[in-house]
Structures are given as C-alpha cells and as structure tokens.
Amino acid sequence: MSLNGKVALVTGGSRGIGAATAVRLAREGADVALTYAGAEQKAQEVAEEIRATGRRALVIRADSADAAEVTGAVDQAAAELGRLDILVNNAGVFPHGPFEDVTVEELDRTLAIHVRGTFLASQAAVRHMTAGGRIISVGSNLADRVPFPGITLYAASKAALNGFTKGLARDLGGREITVNVVHPGSTATDMNPPHGEGADAQRAISATGRYAEPSEQAALVAFLAGPEAGNITGSAFTMDGGSNA
Ligand code: NDP
Q1: Architecture of domain 7-239
Q2: Which residues line ligand 1 (CB under 6 A)?
Q3: Per the record, which residues fall in region Disordered (predicted)?
Q4: How far apart (Å, rounded) are the C-alpha atoms in residues 1 and 27?
Q5: What was the pLDDT predicted at 1?
Q6: Which of 11, 134, 201, 227 is 20 to 30 Å apart from 220, CA to CA?
C-alpha cells in the first residue's frame, strides 16, 4: 500500500468527497484524522470504516471558518497520530442565489471556510510536515468556468485556491512538500444530489452525461498523496466529465 506509515488530515471528512477520501487514504495505508462541523454521527461512521481497514482514525469537531479551531485540529491530529504527512482541504459549502442577495455574513463565512481555513490549516500543517508532505485542496471546476448564474461567490472562493496552490508550491518546493488542487465537477453528494434541482442541466453540459462518484474524486486525491506524485506541484486537476471542455 502506497501510504503505509503516513498520517493524513481531511477537513470535512464526515460526508461526501471528504468521507470517501478519508476512507480511501486509509485503504492505502494511512492513519486518518477527519474534521466535521455538525454531523458527528456521520463522522463517527466514517471513523469506523477507517478502523475496519486496520488504520487509526481520529474525529475532531472543528469549524473551518474558525481560525483557532481549524489550526487546533491540525495540531491535534499531529499530536495524537504522531506526525502529519497529508492535508486535504476539503470542507466546503455551496452558497447560491441572486448576486444582490449575498449578505456580508455569507460572503465572509464562505471565504473563511474555503480560503482562510485552507490557508491557516496549510500554515499549521507545514510546521509538522517533512519531505514527502502533501497539501491537496478541493476546489471546483467552477473556478475556471461558470456556466450558470447565481454562483459568483462560490466560483470566486474556489478560484482563489488556484493562486493559493501556485504560490504555496513555490514556497514549499525546496522542502519536497507538494501542493495541488483538485477541481471536481458535479459529484453525487448531499451538496449536489444527482436527482436534485439542476442536476439534469449539469449532466447536459458534461461530455460524459453523468455525475462523478465521490470515490472517483478520492482516487485522484489518493494518487496526488502518493509516492509517485512527488514531482507534481502547483497544478490543478479537473475531474468534471468534460463539463469545462
Ligand atoms: P457535502 O455537503 O456532501 O459535505 C461537506 C463536508 O464539509 C461535510 O463533511 C461537512 O461537515 C463539511 N463542512 C462544511 N462546512 C464546514 C465547516 N465550516 N467546517 C468544517 N467542515 C465543514 O459536500 P461535498 O462532499 O460535495 O463537497 C466537498 C468539497 O467538494 C467542497 O469543498 C465542495 O465545494 C467541493 N465540490 C463539490 C462538488 C459536488 O458536485 N459535490 C463539485 C465541486 C466541488 P458536516 O457533515 O459536519 O456538515
């Protein structure tokens, strides 16, 4: 297994892409910490799945919008699991609606979760990482192309991860820590149910005509976390069934 002896932290690991990623990293041999915001039961179920692979799991309640909580989660994971090699900045929300209706609170909270939380978690993580470290953020294909109205805030918050990834790759390249961003397109989760409102429109703009499964996004993250991806850094990887093609 490619991640034997490694320790990972996945933010927002209680559901969807984060949960699939946490379990996939464990199947590759990593011990895994995961954060959640409210869904404690779901987080514990993911931890049980991780333990069923034979790896250690740690569940931490930490709001990614709260600087002390998100950095505290990183330090707790490193302390309790003994090291930290892989950080997956996955926690996310999907604000949408008319541009004029976006409140200051919604603007601040979205940027806090997607941008500030990612920045601070990564800053805390690199204090623990050694050569071979991996920082992988979960963006969105909407960072590069926005095919529908009503998602300006979401798109802007995810586009920020492109600049963050490139900058941090330059900062950490000399330490052999890689930094990449994965841009999912429509993926079947609570955030974007494949039979929800707007699902058919999303399928219609894709080339494959279908949603991705969370496990498919998790496989890409696992590859970037693995030993064969050591010279991949500062890059963005889109898995959107060709929606942006
Ligand atoms: P889900 O809504 O299924 O899961 C979101 C996860 O993030 C949950 O574990 C949730 O925790 C956690 N979370 C939300 N807010 C916070 C917070 N403030 N602090 C800590 N954790 C938080 O979403 P997805 O799995 O679909 O999304 C995962 C990532 O993928 C997000 O960044 C999203 O933007 C991105 N994405 C998703 C796409 C899709 O089509 N599904 C497409 C493109 C990108 P809890 O369970 O406790 O609420």
Answers
A1: 3-Layer(aba) Sandwich (3.40)
A2: 11-18, 35-39, 42, 63-65, 90-93, 113, 138, 140, 184, 186-187, 189-192
A3: 185-204
A4: 8
A5: 74
A6: 201
